[in-house]
Amino acid sequence: xxxxxxxxxxxxxxxxxxxxxxxxxxxxxxxxxxxxxxxxxxxxxxxxxxxxxxxxxxxxxxxxxxxxxxxxxxxxxxxxxxxxxxxxxxxxxxxxxxxxxxxxxxxxxxxxxxxxxxxxxxxxxxxxxxxxxxxxxxxxxxxxxxxxxxxxx
Length: 153
Fold this sequence. Notes:
Layout: E1 3-10, H1 15-29, E2 32-36, E3 40-42, E4 53-61, H2 66-79, E5 97-103, E6 108-109, E7 114-115, H3 124-133, H4 146-152
Antiparallel strand pairs: 1-4, 1-5, 2-4, 3-4, 6-7
């Protein structure tokens, strides 16, 4: 079964609870949660806010296609109070954000989904928790491991 690598973040309300609720919901609706990282606290990335983030990564074994998984993650976000997604690089505070980073070694280019996630190698808040659970995982385009990408930051 395919493995999907996810990044989760929250900077509003009970941030840790939102991460745990999202992971539980994904485990029940989208596949089997195989592994999750610890939680880290980070400053907002790409926008200014007085609210810091709690971030985590997880591995999900799923029967869903990448597009079906995207719809499942968006449904979980909506169920936890997320009212709008970031658009054209305009980010804002959010109760929960779930990004699909990698789906096995698939490369997907569509209007709604790009895999691997195009900004993952630039984001400490993604690479640090991902390195905790999958340090030797290879990026399907660059060939770099997660630990090597993190070291390059």
